[in-house]
Design a protein that fits this description.
This protein has 139 residues and is mainly α. Helices cover 73% and strands 0% of the residues. It has five helices and no strands.
Length: 139
């Protein structure tokens, strides 16, 4: 069950990033509010950056979901990469140091959302990916 929840959440977040790359502002009223809440700046990153994040999240979701099949070592290494990236992002956010990986992320709204929502979500997703990697090691 944890695998499906983790993969589903990663796919959903990937879809949001792809929509933002396409110019949408959902769930915010406009791109300015989106940038302030999600990036902590006055402008949304360019479309290629949004699409790159969407692709990385899609790859992470696929790893959690069980791809590539028949390549357990590749999958395990990929899952550990997901754990390190999401876990590191979560720890930095909880510590109030997201600025180390995203120097311009400085708005008060972003910092509040980062500590209360984004970072705990990253840690939960890292935990889900870790659980999947651990289960793969037992097989």
């Amino acid at each position: 069950m944890r695998t499906y929840l983790t993969a589903g959440a990663l796919f959903a977040i990937a879809a949001l990033h792809a929509a933002w790359g396409a110019g949408r502002s959902f769930p915010f009223p406009d791109r300015e509010h989106l940038a302030d809440a999600v990036v902590g700046t006055s402008a949304v990153p360019p479309a290629p950056a949004c699409y790159a994040v969407a692709a990385a999240l899609t790859a992470a979701a696929a790893l959690v979901q069980g791809f590539p099949t028949g390549r357990p070592t590749v999958r395990r290494v990929g899952l550990l990469g997901v754990v390190v990236v999401l876990g590191g992002r979560g720890v930095l956010g909880i510590a109030g140091r997201t600025d180390l990986v995203s120097p311009a992320s400085s708005s008060a709204r972003f910092r509040r959302l980062d500590r209360n929502l984004y970072s705990p979500l990253c840690l939960a997703l890292a935990t889900g990916a870790w659980s999947t990697a651990r289960d793969l090691s037992r097989d």
